[in-house]
Structures are given as structure tokens and as C-alpha cells.
Amino acid sequence: MSLSDFFSPINPDKFSPKQGFLTSHLGLKANFFTDRFPELEEKTYDIAIFGVKDDRGAVNNNGCALGSEHFREQFYTLNEGSFTSKIIDLGNIKAGKEVSDTYFAVKTAVAELIKLNILPIIIGGGQDITYAQYMAYENLEQKVDLVVIDSKFDLDEDTEEGVATTSSSYLSKIFLHQPNYLFNFSNVGYQTYFVNQDSLKVMDKLYFDVHRLGEFMPDISLTEPVLRNANMISFDLGAIRSADAGANVNAGPNGFYGEDACRITRYAGMNDKLTSIGFYEFNPAFDRNGQTAMLLAQMVWYFIDGYYNRKQDFPLTPKSQYIIYRASLKDGSGEMNFVKSKRSDRWWMQVPYPTGISKNERYHLVPCRYDDYNTAVNGEMPDLWWRTYQKLS
């Protein structure tokens, strides 16, 4: 089965401005699947964009299947930044006969693109498609760190008979999937009044990282270490306040500001280990003056800008490119090591594997903040270190 079997072509003329694209527009920089499916080879393209025209799993947000077309109208009129992009737009994955057929198509497409070292940007569709995005990693034989930007935890039980999962329950599917290859889950921006306290207890029991919206209001850069730990990201546009992105039935008055959403996606793009990202729940039926489509286009633009500004500074080799700092705990129980990149001033902490867990590596590197290092210098164990160690056990 070929990837071309899953995609329907697009006509760039339908979303180009009346006067045509300017030479600096992304519409003339990107390639498109129009008539003949493109040859996909490693290094030919860096990024592949595709839409998923299925909203059957979207709770109270029918119409988000049409989001990709409206996104393209805004995105391809943006100017290329200070980078030379190699982008292919593969068109759209149509809704399958069953929702599970759509999931299979997304899973297969994402997996094949990752194998070719091409990063897929998914424009949904309901956020339940995150489950298919996650399933793409099943055959890649690696543990997955999943980050979701969302105002709530989507752990509800399925409510519709015959639907594999919904946008309010896909996390349950991921957490319960066997074999389990989810190493860590992080939520960015949940709002407490939308979250069942029992769900918070589940997250704590599993040593997952969940962060309230209020944690990032003083400084949005605090999201960067969380995003830097992700292999895959799912962004629910409902996490953005309705005044900035109202094209989502479930959007509320509180959430991230539009400019903060753009900074978040740029941080995501700069993550060297990130291999896929999905943007979900954009519903053009509620998009006044195309504002949300424009914001989504700018978010993807910033993601791509971040991608082409990756530092490639993961602290492995050579050692001359980073500095190791050591701190001792007050109780004398041990020493903690931190690593700082000379290229970017970003921090990691070394969390040792318990005896016998890993034959090839002595420690696991987890992104952290300078504040975590200060906590250790003051003799206290950072919470992030402890939760990571428990997951390694």
C-alpha cells in the first residue's frame, strides 16, 4: 500500500490571492501534491503538511474537518523567514468509512514520514486524531514523550457507540494501550475548573507532568523545557482564549494569548527530538474575519522558524560544547549533575538509571530550568528529578 492511497490532492489556485503569490510567499516556496504524488525521500523535504478531514470524534465541534483549507488560505500568503524551507504539502487525508480507517491512514502516514526524517505537521480535524498520531510510533521501537497543550485532560470515557475514541477521551486510549511505549506525558495550560481532581491524582500517581495555565502567565518561556522533552505534540486550539481564537465551540474566555501560542510553537520547533506535531479543533464555521485561521497560520510559521533554528545541542558529544555542574543534597544522600549547553544556555539534568535497568546508558537526560539547578544547589531535590527517576524504575 502506497502513501498516495491515503491522500487527496489540492489545487493551490483555490487558496492563492487574486493577484497571485509574491515571490517571497510560502505559496511559491512550498511544493504541493496536485496531480502526481511526490517522490518522498530522505533529505528531499524537511517538513510535510497535511490536513485530516475527519471530525466525527470531535465533541461539540462539528465542522473542524474543514479547517485545513482555511488554514492554507492564510499560511501560504506569509513570507518565508530567514530560512530556506523545504516543505511539501501532501494535501488531505479524507475521512474513512469508519473513524478507525482515518486513524490507520494518519498512523501510516506519520510513521512513514518519520522514517524518512520528514517532520509531519497535521492540521485537524478533531483532537482524537492525536491517538492515531501516537500510534505511528508503535513500530519505531522507541519510548514516546507526549506533550499536549490543552485546557483540560481528555480522560473521559467514550460516549458515542461505534466511535473508537473522541476528543475528550483519547488520552485514556493512549494510557491504556498495550504494549505501553509512553514514557512521559505532559500537559501544558490546563485550567483547574475544567479538571476532575481524581484525574489530577491519576497524573500524580503516574508521575506525569501537568502544568496549570497560571504557571506560565508571568513568563511564557517557562514552557520551553517542557516542550523540549517531547517526541510528539498535540495542540488543541481550545487552549487559546476565545478573544484570540474563537473558531472552536469549546473555546473559553481564559487561555493562552495569541502571541504566547506563537512563542510556544516556536519553542516546539526548536526541540531537536520532536518528530511530529498536530494542531486540532480549528472550526472555520466560527471564524470571524478569518482571525483564527490567521493565528494558526502564524503559529505554524513560528514552528517552522523554530525548526530551522534548531541548535543541535543535546548534551552528548563533543563535551567541549557543554558544561557539567554538580550539586550535593543536604541529607548527604548523593550528588546531582546538571548540564548546560554553551550554544543555547539551555539546561538538562542527569537522572541515573536504577541498577540493571539500562545496559548501554548510565543516566537519562531530561530538560530542565536554571531554577531546578538552584534548587539542587540549595540542597533540595527538584521534583522533576524525582518523578523522572520513578518512571525509570
Automatic annotation (TrEMBL):
Pfam annotation, one family: Arginase
CDD domains: Formimidoylglutamase (cd09988)
InterPro entries in the cross-refs: Ureohydrolase, Ureohydrolase_dom_sf
GO biological process terms on file: putrescine biosynthetic process from arginine, via agmatine
Keywords: Hydrolase, Metal-binding
Record-linked SUPFAM superfamilies: Arginase/deacetylase
Keyword tRNA-binding on entry: no
Molecular function GO terms recorded: agmatinase activity; metal ion binding
Superkingdom in the source lineage: Bacteria
PANTHER family: ARGINASE/AGMATINASE (PTHR11358), GUANIDINO ACID HYDROLASE, MITOCHONDRIAL (PTHR11358:SF26)
Homology family: Belongs to the arginase family.
Name used for this protein in its record: Arginase
